[in-house]
Amino acid sequence: MLLKSTSVDMPPRKHTIVFVPHSMRRTRQFRVSGRWLAAIAATAGLVLGVTGWVTVYQVRSAVQLRDLERIQQENVDLRRANASFEASVSRLQQALTEAEDRTRDLAIVAGLEKIVGGEPESRLSEAGAGGTFTSLSAPDSSDLSLLEARASLLGGRLDAVDSAFEERQLVLRSTPMIWPVRGVINSGFGFRRDPITGQRAHHSGLDISADRGIPVLATADGIVVRAERMGNLGRAVYVLHRFGYETRYGHMAEILVEEGQEIRRGDILGRVGNSGRTTGYHLHYEVRLEGDARNPFEYLRSQG
User: Fold this and answer.
1) Are 241 and 222 in contact (CB under 8 A)?
2) The whole model's pTM is what?
3) Per-residue pLDDT tens digits for 250-279
4) 304 with 264: CB under 8 angstroms?
5) Peptide bond before residue 11 is cis, with ω within 30 degrees of 0
6) Residue 100: which of 150, 45, 53 has the closest Cα?
Protein backbone atom coordinates (compact mmCIF):
# COMPACT_ATOMS: atom_id res chain seq x y z
CA MET A 1 0.00 0.00 0.00
CA LEU A 2 1.36 3.36 -0.99
CA LEU A 3 0.32 6.76 0.28
CA LYS A 4 1.06 9.76 -1.84
CA SER A 5 0.06 13.37 -1.69
CA THR A 6 -1.52 15.20 -4.58
CA SER A 7 -0.64 18.84 -4.77
CA VAL A 8 -3.36 21.06 -6.09
CA ASP A 9 -3.61 24.70 -6.09
CA MET A 10 -7.08 24.83 -4.61
CA PRO A 11 -8.13 23.55 -1.16
CA PRO A 12 -9.02 21.22 0.28
CA ARG A 13 -5.84 19.19 0.16
CA LYS A 14 -6.48 15.53 -0.52
CA HIS A 15 -4.46 12.30 -0.22
CA THR A 16 -4.44 9.28 -2.43
CA ILE A 17 -4.24 5.83 -0.90
CA VAL A 18 -2.99 3.16 -3.28
CA PHE A 19 -3.38 -0.59 -2.56
CA VAL A 20 -0.85 -2.72 -4.48
CA PRO A 21 -1.67 -6.44 -4.39
CA HIS A 22 1.04 -9.14 -4.54
CA SER A 23 -0.74 -10.83 -7.42
CA MET A 24 -1.10 -9.48 -10.90
CA ARG A 25 -4.37 -7.84 -10.07
CA ARG A 26 -4.81 -4.19 -10.69
CA THR A 27 -4.05 -1.65 -8.01
CA ARG A 28 -6.73 0.28 -6.25
CA GLN A 29 -6.65 3.93 -5.34
CA PHE A 30 -8.71 5.90 -2.86
CA ARG A 31 -8.68 9.63 -2.46
CA VAL A 32 -9.43 10.99 1.01
CA SER A 33 -9.23 14.43 2.45
CA GLY A 34 -6.87 15.32 5.26
CA ARG A 35 -9.77 15.67 7.65
CA TRP A 36 -10.95 12.12 6.99
CA LEU A 37 -7.45 10.78 7.33
CA ALA A 38 -7.06 12.56 10.68
CA ALA A 39 -10.43 11.22 11.82
CA ILE A 40 -9.46 7.68 10.85
CA ALA A 41 -6.14 8.02 12.68
CA ALA A 42 -7.86 9.44 15.75
CA THR A 43 -10.42 6.64 15.73
CA ALA A 44 -7.69 4.03 15.42
CA GLY A 45 -5.77 5.60 18.30
CA LEU A 46 -8.92 5.71 20.42
CA VAL A 47 -9.66 2.06 19.70
CA LEU A 48 -6.10 1.09 20.57
CA GLY A 49 -6.22 3.15 23.77
CA VAL A 50 -9.52 1.65 24.89
CA THR A 51 -8.28 -1.83 24.07
CA GLY A 52 -5.08 -1.26 26.05
CA TRP A 53 -7.02 0.11 29.05
CA VAL A 54 -9.41 -2.81 29.00
CA THR A 55 -6.49 -5.24 28.83
CA VAL A 56 -4.69 -3.58 31.74
CA TYR A 57 -7.92 -3.50 33.79
CA GLN A 58 -8.58 -7.17 33.17
CA VAL A 59 -5.03 -8.10 34.16
CA ARG A 60 -5.23 -6.05 37.34
CA SER A 61 -8.65 -7.47 38.15
CA ALA A 62 -7.32 -11.01 37.74
CA VAL A 63 -4.42 -10.25 40.10
CA GLN A 64 -6.75 -8.71 42.65
CA LEU A 65 -9.09 -11.68 42.38
CA ARG A 66 -6.22 -14.08 43.06
CA ASP A 67 -5.14 -11.97 46.06
CA LEU A 68 -8.71 -11.96 47.35
CA GLU A 69 -8.97 -15.74 47.01
CA ARG A 70 -5.65 -16.15 48.83
CA ILE A 71 -6.78 -13.87 51.67
CA GLN A 72 -10.08 -15.73 51.93
CA GLN A 73 -8.24 -19.06 52.15
CA GLU A 74 -5.94 -17.62 54.80
CA ASN A 75 -8.99 -16.48 56.77
CA VAL A 76 -10.45 -19.99 56.54
CA ASP A 77 -7.16 -21.48 57.75
CA LEU A 78 -6.97 -18.97 60.60
CA ARG A 79 -10.54 -19.75 61.65
CA ARG A 80 -9.74 -23.45 61.70
CA ALA A 81 -6.56 -22.86 63.70
CA ASN A 82 -8.46 -20.60 66.08
CA ALA A 83 -11.20 -23.19 66.54
CA SER A 84 -8.57 -25.88 67.21
CA PHE A 85 -6.82 -23.62 69.73
CA GLU A 86 -10.10 -22.84 71.50
CA ALA A 87 -10.92 -26.55 71.67
CA SER A 88 -7.45 -27.26 73.12
CA VAL A 89 -7.87 -24.57 75.77
CA SER A 90 -11.32 -25.92 76.58
CA ARG A 91 -9.93 -29.42 77.04
CA LEU A 92 -7.14 -28.00 79.20
CA GLN A 93 -9.69 -26.18 81.38
CA GLN A 94 -11.71 -29.35 81.77
CA ALA A 95 -8.61 -31.39 82.59
CA LEU A 96 -7.52 -28.80 85.17
CA THR A 97 -10.96 -28.82 86.76
CA GLU A 98 -10.96 -32.62 87.00
CA ALA A 99 -7.41 -32.62 88.38
CA GLU A 100 -8.37 -30.00 90.98
CA ASP A 101 -11.36 -32.08 92.08
CA ARG A 102 -9.26 -35.24 92.32
CA THR A 103 -6.54 -33.38 94.21
CA ARG A 104 -9.16 -32.05 96.61
CA ASP A 105 -10.48 -35.58 97.23
CA LEU A 106 -6.95 -36.90 97.79
CA ALA A 107 -6.18 -34.02 100.13
CA ILE A 108 -9.29 -34.78 102.20
CA VAL A 109 -8.25 -38.45 102.40
CA ALA A 110 -4.78 -37.34 103.47
CA GLY A 111 -6.25 -34.98 106.09
CA LEU A 112 -5.16 -31.84 104.25
CA GLU A 113 -8.50 -30.08 103.78
CA LYS A 114 -6.90 -26.72 104.54
CA ILE A 115 -4.71 -26.70 101.45
CA VAL A 116 -7.78 -26.86 99.19
CA GLY A 117 -10.04 -24.64 101.24
CA GLY A 118 -12.49 -27.45 101.94
CA GLU A 119 -14.88 -26.50 99.12
CA PRO A 120 -14.68 -27.04 95.34
CA GLU A 121 -15.53 -23.36 94.79
CA SER A 122 -12.30 -22.33 96.49
CA ARG A 123 -10.36 -22.97 93.32
CA LEU A 124 -9.46 -19.94 91.24
CA SER A 125 -12.58 -18.78 89.48
CA GLU A 126 -12.81 -19.39 85.81
CA ALA A 127 -15.59 -18.18 83.51
CA GLY A 128 -17.33 -20.90 81.56
CA ALA A 129 -15.13 -23.69 82.91
CA GLY A 130 -15.99 -27.08 81.53
CA GLY A 131 -17.86 -27.84 78.33
CA THR A 132 -16.89 -26.20 75.07
CA PHE A 133 -16.14 -22.62 74.08
CA THR A 134 -19.01 -20.66 72.58
CA SER A 135 -17.01 -17.48 71.96
CA LEU A 136 -15.97 -16.66 68.41
CA SER A 137 -12.76 -15.03 69.59
CA ALA A 138 -9.66 -16.73 70.88
CA PRO A 139 -8.97 -16.71 74.63
CA ASP A 140 -7.16 -13.54 75.60
CA SER A 141 -4.03 -13.23 77.69
CA SER A 142 -6.00 -12.99 80.93
CA ASP A 143 -7.59 -16.40 80.23
CA LEU A 144 -4.18 -17.95 79.59
CA SER A 145 -2.76 -16.26 82.70
CA LEU A 146 -5.61 -17.74 84.72
CA LEU A 147 -4.86 -21.20 83.37
CA GLU A 148 -1.18 -20.78 84.26
CA ALA A 149 -2.10 -19.65 87.78
CA ARG A 150 -4.45 -22.61 88.25
CA ALA A 151 -1.80 -25.02 86.98
CA SER A 152 0.80 -23.54 89.34
CA LEU A 153 -1.57 -23.73 92.31
CA LEU A 154 -2.50 -27.29 91.39
CA GLY A 155 1.19 -28.23 91.24
CA GLY A 156 1.73 -26.87 94.74
CA ARG A 157 -1.28 -28.72 96.08
CA LEU A 158 -0.16 -31.97 94.45
CA ASP A 159 3.28 -31.58 96.03
CA ALA A 160 1.66 -31.10 99.44
CA VAL A 161 -0.65 -34.08 98.95
CA ASP A 162 2.25 -36.22 97.73
CA SER A 163 4.31 -35.26 100.76
CA ALA A 164 1.38 -36.02 103.07
CA PHE A 165 0.82 -39.41 101.46
CA GLU A 166 4.50 -40.26 101.79
CA GLU A 167 4.33 -39.38 105.47
CA ARG A 168 1.13 -41.43 105.87
CA GLN A 169 2.79 -44.37 104.16
CA LEU A 170 5.78 -43.99 106.44
CA VAL A 171 3.47 -43.91 109.46
CA LEU A 172 1.69 -47.04 108.26
CA ARG A 173 4.95 -48.87 107.60
CA SER A 174 6.26 -47.85 111.02
CA THR A 175 3.12 -48.79 112.97
CA PRO A 176 2.93 -52.42 114.24
CA MET A 177 -0.01 -54.03 112.44
CA ILE A 178 0.46 -57.73 111.70
CA TRP A 179 0.66 -60.78 113.94
CA PRO A 180 4.30 -61.57 114.74
CA VAL A 181 3.64 -65.29 114.67
CA ARG A 182 0.88 -67.70 113.76
CA GLY A 183 -0.62 -68.97 116.97
CA VAL A 184 -3.14 -68.55 119.78
CA ILE A 185 -3.09 -65.92 122.51
CA ASN A 186 -2.90 -67.70 125.85
CA SER A 187 -2.14 -64.68 128.03
CA GLY A 188 -3.33 -61.14 127.38
CA PHE A 189 -2.18 -57.65 128.26
CA GLY A 190 -2.70 -56.28 131.76
CA PHE A 191 -2.96 -57.77 135.21
CA ARG A 192 -3.00 -61.58 135.44
CA ARG A 193 -2.00 -64.45 137.69
CA ASP A 194 1.68 -65.12 137.12
CA PRO A 195 2.03 -68.60 135.53
CA ILE A 196 5.04 -69.47 137.71
CA THR A 197 4.45 -67.75 141.08
CA GLY A 198 0.67 -67.64 140.91
CA GLN A 199 0.67 -64.08 142.20
CA ARG A 200 -1.22 -61.18 140.63
CA ALA A 201 1.15 -59.24 138.34
CA HIS A 202 1.02 -56.91 135.39
CA HIS A 203 1.75 -58.46 131.99
CA SER A 204 3.19 -55.88 129.55
CA GLY A 205 2.49 -57.84 126.37
CA LEU A 206 0.84 -60.83 124.78
CA ASP A 207 1.88 -64.48 125.03
CA ILE A 208 1.14 -66.22 121.72
CA SER A 209 1.42 -70.01 121.84
CA ALA A 210 3.01 -71.55 118.75
CA ASP A 211 5.00 -74.60 117.75
CA ARG A 212 8.73 -74.56 118.26
CA GLY A 213 10.69 -73.13 115.32
CA ILE A 214 7.86 -71.15 113.70
CA PRO A 215 9.23 -67.89 112.19
CA VAL A 216 8.80 -64.72 114.24
CA LEU A 217 8.05 -61.75 111.98
CA ALA A 218 8.72 -58.03 112.38
CA THR A 219 5.38 -56.24 112.66
CA ALA A 220 6.62 -52.93 111.19
CA ASP A 221 9.62 -51.31 109.51
CA GLY A 222 12.42 -50.35 111.86
CA ILE A 223 15.93 -50.93 113.17
CA VAL A 224 17.07 -53.72 115.49
CA VAL A 225 18.40 -52.06 118.65
CA ARG A 226 18.89 -55.21 120.75
CA ALA A 227 19.32 -58.84 119.73
CA GLU A 228 20.62 -60.96 122.60
CA ARG A 229 19.72 -63.04 125.61
CA MET A 230 17.96 -60.80 128.17
CA GLY A 231 17.14 -62.38 131.54
CA ASN A 232 13.54 -63.49 131.92
CA LEU A 233 12.82 -62.84 128.21
CA GLY A 234 15.51 -65.28 127.15
CA ARG A 235 16.61 -64.76 123.57
CA ALA A 236 14.90 -61.49 122.62
CA VAL A 237 14.89 -58.83 119.90
CA TYR A 238 13.97 -55.17 120.34
CA VAL A 239 13.01 -53.20 117.21
CA LEU A 240 12.81 -49.41 117.22
CA HIS A 241 10.34 -47.86 114.78
CA ARG A 242 9.60 -44.29 113.74
CA PHE A 243 7.04 -42.09 115.50
CA GLY A 244 7.91 -43.41 118.95
CA TYR A 245 7.02 -47.08 118.46
CA GLU A 246 9.05 -50.01 119.75
CA THR A 247 8.29 -53.74 119.60
CA ARG A 248 9.81 -56.55 121.65
CA TYR A 249 9.93 -60.26 120.91
CA GLY A 250 10.98 -62.74 123.65
CA HIS A 251 11.53 -66.39 124.50
CA MET A 252 12.86 -67.22 121.03
CA ALA A 253 14.81 -70.38 120.31
CA GLU A 254 16.98 -68.63 117.70
CA ILE A 255 17.79 -65.01 116.77
CA LEU A 256 18.30 -64.34 113.05
CA VAL A 257 19.05 -60.60 113.05
CA GLU A 258 21.79 -58.34 114.37
CA GLU A 259 21.81 -55.03 116.21
CA GLY A 260 21.75 -52.07 113.83
CA GLN A 261 20.09 -54.07 111.06
CA GLU A 262 17.28 -52.37 109.16
CA ILE A 263 14.24 -54.58 108.78
CA ARG A 264 10.91 -54.40 106.95
CA ARG A 265 7.50 -55.53 108.05
CA GLY A 266 7.33 -59.30 107.53
CA ASP A 267 11.08 -59.93 107.84
CA ILE A 268 12.01 -62.95 109.98
CA LEU A 269 13.59 -61.97 113.31
CA GLY A 270 13.99 -65.43 114.79
CA ARG A 271 12.09 -68.61 115.68
CA VAL A 272 9.66 -69.53 118.45
CA GLY A 273 11.21 -71.19 121.50
CA ASN A 274 10.96 -71.35 125.31
CA SER A 275 14.15 -69.61 126.37
CA GLY A 276 14.10 -67.55 129.57
CA ARG A 277 11.39 -67.61 132.22
CA THR A 278 8.62 -69.62 130.55
CA THR A 279 6.48 -72.71 130.94
CA GLY A 280 6.30 -73.69 127.25
CA TYR A 281 6.80 -72.73 123.66
CA HIS A 282 5.37 -69.29 122.88
CA LEU A 283 6.30 -65.76 121.84
CA HIS A 284 6.16 -62.86 124.26
CA TYR A 285 5.23 -59.80 122.16
CA GLU A 286 5.17 -56.17 123.34
CA VAL A 287 4.23 -52.85 121.72
CA ARG A 288 5.47 -49.64 123.30
CA LEU A 289 4.73 -46.04 122.37
CA GLU A 290 7.07 -43.37 123.74
CA GLY A 291 8.26 -45.98 126.22
CA ASP A 292 4.82 -46.86 127.59
CA ALA A 293 3.52 -50.40 127.14
CA ARG A 294 0.38 -50.61 125.01
CA ASN A 295 -2.03 -53.48 124.47
CA PRO A 296 -0.62 -55.24 121.37
CA PHE A 297 -4.02 -56.73 120.57
CA GLU A 298 -5.24 -53.27 119.52
CA TYR A 299 -2.58 -53.21 116.77
CA LEU A 300 -3.15 -56.67 115.35
CA ARG A 301 -4.81 -56.62 111.92
CA SER A 302 -4.15 -60.03 110.40
CA GLN A 303 -2.29 -63.24 111.06
CA GLY A 304 1.26 -62.91 109.70
Assistant:
1) yes
2) 0.56
3) 999 999 999 999 999 999 999 999 999 888
4) no
5) no
6) 150
